[in-house]
Hints:
Blueprint: E1 5-9, E2 22-26, H1 38-46, E3 51-58, E4 64-66, H2 87-91, H3 104-111, H4 118-124, E5 133-136, H5 139-148, E6 153-157, H6 164-173, E7 177-181, H7 187-195, E8 199-203, H8 208-216, E9 221-224, H9 227-235
Parallel strand pairs: 1-3, 1-5, 2-3, 2-9, 5-6, 6-7, 7-8, 8-9
Antiparallel strand pairs: 3-4
Amino acid sequence: MKRIIVIIAALALCLQGFCQPRLVAHRGGRYEADENTLPAFSTALKAGITGYELDVHRTADGHYVIMHDEDISRTVNAAGIIEKMKFKDLRALRTKKGNKIPTLDEVLKLFGNYARDVYKAITEACPKGSLYLFSSFDTRVLKLLHGSHPDATLMLITGKGMSEELRAIAAEVGTKRVACHRTRTTLEEMNKAHKEGFIVNLWPNGTVEDVVLSNALGADFICTDTPREISRLIDEGRFNIKK
Length: 243
């Protein structure tokens, strides 16, 4: 079995950094596929991608489903807020591209194992040799996870650039892993972060040019919306990035 990396935004995951940056399929590669659906993840797997970002929401009756927005109207031909909807009603819907809304269990089974709730699912479904990392924009979520599961590896996501202030916030949470905004990050700050032992995931990366810039900045992880295209360029030897 391939070594799988998964990042769940709001409760997210990822693998240990390498000297090469790691490629991450943002929502399964939202510019190339129907984001956060089983076809998106399965086709990326077939392309050799082993890094994934996805989003988890809880329905009113306690089921975990994969969708980026809490409001379903952007990707589904219907209206509603996930946390106020029952699973059976949500399950009957299809995305605007015709796919069902997957459950966390289904996605994790695709990656290797069956699971029952978010934390237990992630830890139990972790393939041998991989490390799952929980991430959030909200420091309160990370602090709660750290208090409840001190062994959990955490990552702070932010729309800000790398800075001394950001590193201090991450340290307060108890992590040296940060996902920060590429265009607001300088090479000088990246060098400082690496000297202090930080592992940095740069985003957004919607184009090949974006990936080039993230690579040049020294990103440890590169979260991209076009993982299949970047994978092809890696195979052609045009990028020194690990899939």
